[in-house]
Design a protein that fits this description.
Blueprint lengths: L1 E6 L18 E4 L2 E4 H7 L3 E6 L5 E6 L1 E4 L4 E7 L3 H8 L2 E7 L5 E11 L9 H14 L5 H10 L2 E15 L2
Antiparallel strand pairs: 1-10, 2-3, 4-5, 4-8, 6-7, 7-10, 8-9, 9-10
Length: about 170
């Protein structure tokens, strides 16, 4: 198993000497290289881990968009869900993505920042959710409908500030 990790210079308490640059953390096994940041950015889904009130993890599949330059993973979530309540109580989170063949994985440890729930089709939160959708998936076929749904579902934009990335290529 080849493993690597990166620690943010923005989080000195978690930094360790010799941490790699944000742009590339490469793991290698049998001559095959994988960039852990690419795994987070390119995976169609990931698993978000939050902390329940009793301390056990709560896991949720999510669709993420990773802005590598900013070191932020964005996810659209709904107010009233377990993950949202968990993150409002304790902003520590981790997100894991795997390669398509399952033989490589990357995990980011993060601190969460959440918007308020969307409350009107033209509010700032919905504008941020539109920007998230455009970055993650491109243009929507009906932006007015999208904006209405964001309000109806009380959507929240979750920003996961990446503090550490680690993972491995196991085959």
């Amino acid at each position: 198993t080849s493993a690597a990790s990166w620690c943010s210079t923005d989080a000195p308490s978690r930094s360790t000497p010799g941490c790699a640059e944000r742009r590339h953390v490469i793991v290698e096994k049998n001559g095959k290289k994988v960039d852990l940041h690419d795994l987070i950015a390119d995976a169609p889904t990931a698993v978000l881990a939050t902390i329940r009130a009793d301390g056990r993890p709560q896991l949720s599949p999510v669709n993420q968009y990773y802005d590598r330059e900013a070191g932020i993973v964005y996810v659209s979530i709904a107010e009233g869900r377990a993950k949202t309540a968990n993150l409002r109580r304790d902003p520590r989170a981790s997100l894991q993505a795997s390669s398509a063949d399952g033989w490589a994985w990357a995990t980011v440890d993060c601190t969460a920042e959440l918007t308020a729930p969307a409350s009107a089709p033209d509010d700032e939160v919905v504008d941020q959710l539109v920007a998230y959708f455009r970055a993650a998936a491109g243009e929507h076929s009906d932006w007015d409908e999208y904006r209405r749904v964001m309000v109806a579902e009380r959507r929240v934009l979750l920003k996961l500030h990446v503090e550490r990335i680690y993972g491995a290529k196991v085959h």
